[in-house]
Amino acid sequence: MATKQNLPLFTHRLIIFVGAVVATSAVALGLLLTGLLDDSKAHSSHIPDINGMWLEQDVAPYAADSFEIRPEGVFVDGRQINTQYQWDGSTLEYLKGGTLYSYSFLSGRLIRQRPAHYVSSFSRKTIVLRQSH
């Protein structure tokens, strides 16, 4: 009568080790691919660019507020008032002095929420560059 021969202990442990490595690698690869897909979704949901000069609308020109957003920060009357601002694609916030300025982005305009003296809407000012010939 033939007897079933058992695998040597070393071979058995090697098979378990290799299986664990393969399983761990598969999980790590899955997590990596999930992260890459999430990043591509974040990039595909385009956050509008707000860099430029913003001018208050529907007020007398001499009374209109304005500010400029640049990668370096927030500027008012050509002077930098803050090096940081928060922009998530729908809300812009920055500090001017000790006052929080907050704007909602709607249809290409910034609507000032704070400080809220009255409803004020800002449009990006178009700058026309003239070429010298």
From TrEMBL:
Keyword Transmembrane found: yes
Residues spanning the membrane: 14-37
Species annotation: Photobacterium lutimaris
Domain of life: Bacteria
Source organism phylogeny: Bacteria, Pseudomonadati, Pseudomonadota, Gammaproteobacteria, Vibrionales
Name listed for the protein in its UniProt record: DUF2850 domain-containing protein
Record's keyword terms, sorted: Membrane, Transmembrane, Transmembrane helix
